[in-house]
Amino acid sequence: MDAIRVTVRRGAVVESVHRVHVAFTDGRAFGEPDLVCYLRSSAKPVQAIPFVEGYDDLPDEEIAIACASHRAEPPQLDAVRRVLERAGATVDDLENGPQEGRPEGKLGHNCSGKHAGMLAACRANGWPLHPYRDPSHPLQARIAELIGGRATAVDGCGVPTFAMSLREAAALLTRVPPRIREAMRARPELVGGSHGAADTDLMCLRDGWIAKGGAEGLFCAAHEDGLGLALKVEDGAYRAIRPALGHVLGVGELLETPVTNSRGETVGVISLAT
Hints:
Elements: E1 4-10, E2 13-24, E3 29-30, E4 36-38, H1 44-47, H2 49-53, H3 60-66, H4 74-87, H5 112-125, H6 138-147, E5 151-154, E6 160-165, H7 166-169, H8 178-186, H9 188-191, H10 198-205, E7 209-214, E8 218-223, E9 228-233, H11 241-249, E10 257-260, E11 266-272
């Protein structure tokens, strides 16, 4: 089937059109399922596995924030602080940088939970804390083994990232262990945010799913029955994910996203092309 077309309409005029490619683990596809892309933050639930392997007393919030691309909301930052405390580390130990427009320096970066989890994994396994983001570090070697590939680039937060086909990415979250799945389902608001995050919203709206979005318009999800899928917006515009996801999974609540102006007025809509 052809790629899904998502339009951004302001008033009566279509201002943008995005093409979304989709692959399911059961063979269904829209567009080009062999399109190669980087996993980016969609890999976080797998990158959190060494952290979870290292402890038997992790609460849901610590696991969920290690899987998160958070929005620096207070409960999210508090969860990152708890993981750092577990690691015996401080904000200065985080190897991500600050993020423009975010509070509290490196702590406010949307990947700080992942990085805190990596520090805690190093502590639990007796690995050197630094440089934990180096591809040759034992932590990154373990993550490469879990993902089943070779890192070929550096992610926005400084750790290795992995390239694979969309068809392969569809299976990514089907390999997430039950404990991580449980924590993401229990605390979905920590994984994305309290409002408007597609991964959080899918987990809240439909039972059995875990989901994680990534930069440049990638989105991966898996159901407890073993079905996995991945979506990739061809031009990297993440705003096209919600309508496309709503279409392929039949989640009507995601089919349209309002376009608003600085006054909070609705002036358009992001939806499937008609």
